[in-house]
Design a protein that fits this description.
alpha/beta; Rossmann fold; Arc Repressor Mutant, subunit A; 2 domains; 8 helices; 24% strand; elongated
C-alpha cells in the first residue's frame, strides 16, 4: 500500500519562485498547494486542507504572512509553520517565533537544507523518533513528562521550572543533533542578546544536574552553534 503523501500549503506571491519551490518539493514526494497571496492562502487553508505544514512568505498583497500565520495558528495551534522570507531583521524573526513558527528561513536559502528542515519538523510532529507519545519523551533511561515538568527514573523524580521544561523539550526535539542557540533564545526567551544568552547558560547547567540520573545522557556545547543533547549507546546503570 502506498504511503499517504504529506500535504503542504505554500503561500508565495513571486509566481516563478513559488512554482520552482512547489516542483522541487513535489519531486521529493510532497503534495503542494500554491497560493499567490495571503487572502488566497487563508481561503486555501480552509477549503483545500487538511495540511501537514504551511510555508508562508511575509511581504504579500491583500494579507501579509504574519497576519496569515496568526489566523492559521488560531485555527490550528498544532500545525507546523515556516516563514520563508527576505525579511532578515531580528525584530521580524522575533515576531515570527512569537506567532508560533517552527522555523524562520531567510531568502536566499539552500533548497536541500529547507527540505531537511521540513522533514525534521514533520517527523517531530508525527511523534516519531525519541518521542513516545504527545509531550512525553524517552531520554536514555529517563522519562520526561513535559506537561507535568518531571524527569523520572527508578522512583527518582525531579520537577523542572517552566523554562527548564521548555528548553529540555526543544533539546529533545533535536536529540543527537544540534539545537541552535539563537532558535532556543527566540522561541523561549523571545530575545537574543547577551543577558538572555547568559540566562540560558544557567538553565543548561541546571538541566545537566537533573540528567545525572542517567550518566549516558549528556548536553554538550557545540562551539558557535548551540547545544547537543545526546545519549550514549549500550550504557546501563
Amino acid at each position: 500500500m502506498k504511503a499517504k503523501k504529506e500535504r503542504i500549503l505554500l503561500v508565495e506571491d513571486d509566481v516563478n519562485f513559488g512554482l520552482v519551490l512547489k516542483n522541487y518539493l513535489e519531486l521529493d514526494g510532497f503534495q503542494v498547494v500554491l497560493s499567490p497571496d495571503g487572502s488566497s492562502g487563508w481561503r486555501d487553508f480552509n477549503h483545500k486542507g487538511p495540511f501537514s505544514l504551511c510555508i508562508l512568505d511575509i511581504m504579500m498583497p491583500y494579507k501579509d504572512g504574519f497576519t496569515l500565520g496568526r489566523e492559521i495558528k488560531n485555527a490550528d495551534k498544532d500545525i507546523p509553520l515556516i516563514f520563508l522570507t527576505a525579511k532578515a531583521l531580528k525584530e521580524d524573526q522575533l515576531i515570527g517565533y512569537r506567532i508560533g513558527a517552527d522555523d524562520y528561513v531567510i531568502k536566499p536559502f539552500d533548497s536541500e537544507l529547507l527540505l531537511h528542515k521540513i522533514k525534521a519538523i514533520l517527523k517531530r510532529n508525527d511523534n516519531s523518533g525519541q518521542r513516545s507519545e504527545p509531550d512525553k519523551y524517552k531520554i536514555g533511561l529517563l522519562d520526561f513528562n513535559y506537561d507535568l515538568r518531571e524527569i523520572s527514573h527508578n522512583g527518582h523524580v525531579a520537577v523542572l521550572s517552566p523554562k527548564e521544561a521548555q528548553l529540555l523539550k526543544l533539546l529533545c526535539e533535536h536529540i543527537n543533533g544540534v539545537t541552535p542557540r539563537d532558535e532556543a533564545l527566540l522561541k523561549i526567551w523571545k530575545e537574543d542578546n547577551y543577558f538572555t544568552g547568559r540566562s540560558m547558560d544557567v538553565y543548561i547547567t541546571k538541566l545537566r544536574k537533573y540528567l545525572l540520573l542517567d550518566p549516558a545522557v549528556k548536553i554538550t556545547n557545540v562551539h558557535g552553534s548551540g547545544f547537543c543533547l545526546s545519549v550514549e549507546e549500550n550504557k546501563e546503570i
